[in-house]
Every structure is written in structure tokens, then in C-alpha cells.
Amino acid sequence: MLLSKDVALQTAAQLLKIKAVKLSPKEPFTWASGIQSPIYCDNRITLSYPEIRTFIRQQFTAAIREHFEGTEAIAGVATGGIAQGALVAQELGLPFAYVRSGKKDHGLTNQIEGKVEAGQRIVVVEDLISTGGSSLGAVSALREAGCQVAGMVAIFTYNLPVSIKKFDEAGCTLITLSDYDVLIEKALATGYISEEDLAVLREFKEKF
After folding, report:
1. Which domain covers residue 122, as residue numbers?
2. The domain spanning residue 176 has which CATH number?
3. What's the CA gap between 27 and 156, in Å, rounded?
4. Is residue 148 within 8 Å of 87, Cβ to Cβ?
5. pTM of the model
6. How far apart are CA 185 and CA 118, in angstroms?
7. Is-contact 120 92, C-beta < 8 A?
8. Number of structural domains, the chain?
9. Cis link prior to 79 (omega < 30° from 0)?
10. What are the Cα distances from residue 28, in Å, to 36, 188, 208?
11. From first to last of its 208 residues, what are the pLDDT tens digits of the chain?
């Protein structure tokens, strides 16, 4: 679910402006999974732009206050959600922890770094949702630790049908600042892509 259409359009414009999101329907990118994709997203770039970084922090904070009343702690998903999560926790005056993709193979073998407590109401912060697997892995780790995961906030989601299904099955509410559909709408309106490109981009999403 989008925080609001206005915020979604503003976020999309910012991501396109700084090239955090790149669209290339004719020469697709190769994701780590091997998938050939007409879109590539690296929201970590937003951290290098103070005004955009501040905007994201403020909108995340607004989303948490509006949708997740009674939040007691913030958890970031490693690695993209760590910096954004820490900024949000600072803004809200709440404890912060982050969740690795798996347990360390040395030391204390922690998967959750930082202090969380059983029964604690936590909101998870993520930068990007693709298929949803790694993001929901963090939710599972927190639940296994006895935490109550109120939901998740993210900068952007590809809105892939597979990820929507996974979040529904996990019973995890997801609030995003922008998504794939709004972004390609904005890209068309600004002349970044053509109507022909739009058809390719829409077809790609439905493969999942």
C-alpha cells in the first residue's frame, strides 16, 4: 500500500532524477538472480543526497505514526535498510536494531544485531522490495525472537504479484513511498520512456 499518491509521485521523481532507478526496456539489466530486467533500482544512492534523504526519513516517520501506532522499536534489513532505519529510529526516539540475511558463522552467531525484546512492537525498514523473500526473512527472524512485527515500510516496491502474495501470506502490512506502477507513469509523463517502452515495462512485471 502506498503512503499516498502525492508522496509516491514525489518519490518517483526523485529516484529518477538521481538515477537511483534506471529504466532500459531495450537493453535489460541482469539481476543477481539472473533475471533479465528492464529496470534497476539502487536506493542506497538516496543517502548521498541530504534533501532526498531527509524527505524519505520524514515520510517513513509519517507512515509509522499513521499506520503503526504504539511502535516500540525500529529494525532495518541488512544492508539497504540499516542507514534509513537508524535515521527513522533517531527521528522517533526509538531503539534500533538490524537483521542480517542469516546468522553469522562466528562470534555470537547473531542474526539480529542490537537489542530486541520478546513482545516488543517493531516496524521493519527496507529500501527495496523485489520478490519479498529477503525482506520477509527479517520479519521471520524477529518473530522467532518473540517480537511483534507491526509491519514494514520501504522506499520502493516492484509490486510483483509474487511479493504481494508473500506479504499477504505472512500477514505483514507493507507501506511504501512509491512503487513500479507510479514510477513508470512518472517516467512516461516526463519523457524518460515512450509508450512503446511502457508496454514492455508493464509486461515484465506480470511475469512474476
Report:
1. 5-205
2. 3.40.50.2020
3. 22
4. no
5. 0.94
6. 42
7. no
8. 1
9. yes
10. 6, 18, 16
11. 999 999 999 999 999 999 999 999 989 998 777 888 999 999 999 999 999 999 999 999 999 999 999 999 999 999 999 999 999 999 999 999 999 986 655 555 689 999 999 999 999 999 999 999 999 999 999 999 999 999 999 999 999 999 999 999 999 999 999 999 999 999 999 999 999 999 999 999 888 8
Rounded to whole angstroms, how far apart are CA atoms 2 and 176? 5
3-class secondary structure per residue, the chain: CECCHHHHHHHHHHHHHCCCEEECCCCCEECCCCCEECEEECHHHHHHCHHHHHHHHHHHHHHHHHHCCCCCEEEEECCHHHHHHHHHHHHHCCCEEEECCCCCCCCCCCCEECCCCCCCEEEEEEEEECCCHHHHHHHHHHHHCCCEEEEEEEEEECCCHHHHHHHHHHCCCEEEEEEHHHHHHHHHHCCCCCHHHHHHHHHHHCCC
Residue type for position 85: G
